[in-house]
Amino acid sequence: MQIDVVKCSKEFEAGKPVLRQLNFSLASGAFTGLLGPSGCGKTTLLRIFAGLDQPSSGQILFDGKPVTDVARGLSIPPEKRNVAMVFQNYAIWPHMTVFENVAFPMRMQKKSKAEIAARVDQVLSRVQMADLAERRPDALSGGQQQRVALARALVQEPGVLLLDEPLSNLDASLRAEMRDLIRELQQEQGLTAVIVTHDWADAKVLSDTVVVLKEGRIEQVGTADDLVNAPASDFVRSLTGA
Amino acid sequence: MTDAFWLQAALNSGLVVSGVCLLSLITAIPAAWLIERTDLPGAARLRGILTLSYALPSYLLAIAWILLANPSVGWLNLLPGQNFFNIYNLGGVIFIEASVLFTILFMAFWSGLRQMDPALEEAALLAGASPWRVFLQVTAPLLKGHIFSGLIAVGLASLASFGVPAMIGTPARKFVLTTAIYAKIQEGSASAFDEAMLIALEMAGFTLVLVVLASFWSRRKVSLVTGKTSRPALTRLGPWRLPLALLVWGVWSLVVLLPLAALVLSSFCKEPGVLSWSNLSLRPWSYVLFSLSEFRRALANSLLSAGAATLVVMLGALLLALLSRRAHEVNRRGLNWLASAFENTALFCYSLPGTVLALGLIIALTRWQVMDTLFILVIAFVVKFLTLGVQTVKPSVFLIHPSLLEAARLCGAGFLQRLTRIWLPLLKAPLFACALLVFLPCFSELTMCIMLYGPGTENLGVVLYNLQEYADRSSAAVVATLLLVTVILFRTLAGRFRIAD
Question: Quick check: B277 and B417 in contact, CB under 8 A?
């Protein structure tokens, strides 16, 4: 699914814009990294894609169709966008088992029990969590919760997968492993995916395209190589560590 | 015969408790959700107003509804004719109790919503669940603990309430357990006293069971706070926004604003129940303020007893909190046990119906020369409200870093010096909060005072109750208005200092 951002601005408080007149497109089937320091507006943009926040002005188009259009007062509610999100703190429901957590999106799609059981089992195996399907989330490690969150997002077969700093709470070795898993899964399913990160290594490994944000404006758009070889500014150079 | 009397009273209490719980459940939960999770217009203001009525003594509303809906001269009966509305029945008791007590459940559920990580609900939305299903399958199950412990608190409060059933139920000969105990004690015979004692003991046992249940439920509260806090996405009500706002504000106006307005208005009426310009007058006010000697005495009694009790509670809560911190630090079993025994006893005494607690004090303290003095009121207030102080002061005591005290110690400060130079200044804000929180319910207390007062020690609650009994409704309205203004003043003050409930 292609995402177009048209003249998108956001202010939480008057006079303090978080996003300033953003214009760009994310290609269908591509992995896009939104890179920038904290406070640059990247998470806000992700939440606007999901419909969890509303921009102050501008439009968001999914495959050319507006899902948010401030001028017309249009905003498709989050539950009707078929967008999946992996939250920074995973947001695993503590009152449901691993299986129930992952099955939830399919239950909302009113799939049959047999279909749900088969598909959830398949996805859980894919993230190596099939053995722990009946566990309660409080008995899981951070890395395991991360896998559940990922499985829950994948099972939905979303139009776009949004990842909000998913790797920031993991230790270094686990981080590399999860990074590879996320990339593999995205490519297997041909998913359109957007990851928000402040970490150059994550952006570099995962993204086909990196969008660098600074104080609510786009600093540079390009492949990881572009950013390293032809940085648009000292700011980009400092982010890539070159 | 008396067996039937008690059985009927127990049955009525059961009806009141279940009625109030049910009404609270169907109003408090949707209200909290609408206010905290949707773009309802005026949500913040509405929350402020609802938390304000949390502190309202419910008997004020009873007095107000008697003005509005008594069968002979109630203002609501002016148009449809006499007896159309009649507040004097169990339904009236349930309605009035619920209109105040539902705020307990509202606050419990609202604070749960507040603490909960919004990502838990957002994840369900993105998985395709409608806001309604998110509520049913994620929000409500996660906040089960808050709902149940809130409901138990509502149940206990409605079981304990005295003022409303005494003013609304008793005239119709509908007794609940608290008013039945009071009526028996009034009889004055030894056998009646023994019967009342027995019922009080049973109520105490029942309360104990509920308190244990409630603490079990609050321990079952799942941990909802995780990582970073983000702004929760507000559900857009769309076309429902205005109708829902009208509904919520309309219900509130009808249930709280209308009776309180009637109360204030009738304090300016020479003849209660007559609505005309010529009936308006300042006479009730000048009578109460300048001629009614009981009022001035009661005001002094209330100020004195509530003030003294507040000071004792502040000191007691501070010492208890320090003991519990000490126990925590040295981790010795006996000390830990002692601290939690004190705290649990205080909590139990708070949950105990005031009628039962007062009866217990009468029995325990008859030998001491405190009956018919203000001392017994102070003792009763301290026993009842100590836990409110502990709950406000203890968290702050645990937040203070040990190094601050170790440094003082190394400078040579002993316990008393540390208390006055370090603890007290650092705990100024929570102690002030504790004072506001404790003074208010003591100042307007009725349930215990009506059992414990003697000649000359009536407080405002008792005088108000007596004025209402003698059918001096104008004077009662004046005293009630004064109490109402005090409550609003105190709550605004508390809000100004950002004191959480």
Answer: no
A242 burial via Cβ count (<10 Å: 0-12, 13-18, 19+): exposed
A-to-B residue pairs, Cβ atoms closer than 8 angstroms: 87
In this structure, which amino acid lies at residue B311?
Answer: L
* Confidence at residue B501, expressed as pLDDT on a 0 to 100 scale: 40
Contacts of B112 in chain A (CB under 8 A): none
pTM of the model: 0.83
- CATH numbers and ranges of domains, chain B: 1-240 (1.10.3720.10), 287-501 (1.10.3720.10)
Token reading at A233? 């500014």
- Complex-level ipTM: 0.78
Q: Where are the beta strands (DSSP E) in A1-148?
A: 3-13, 16-26, 31-35, 57-62, 65-69, 74-75, 83-86
pLDDT of residue B214: 83
Residues in chain B within 8 Å Cβ distance of A46: none
Nearest to B227 among A52, A80, A89 (CB): A89
The answer to whether A187 contacts chain B (CB < 8 Å) is: no
Q: Give the mean model confidence (pLDDT) for residues B326-347.
A: 87
Query: Taking CB atoms and an 8 Å limit, are B127 and A156 in contact across chains?
Result: yes
The answer to whether the Cβ–Cβ distance between B122 and A88 falls below 8 Å is no
Confidence grade of residue B498 (pLDDT, cut at 50, 70, 90): low
Which of A12, A51, A105 shows the shortest C-beta gap to B127? A105
Q: Which of A52, A89, A108 sits opposite B127 (nearest CB)?
A: A108
B238 vs A contacts (CB less than 8 Å): none
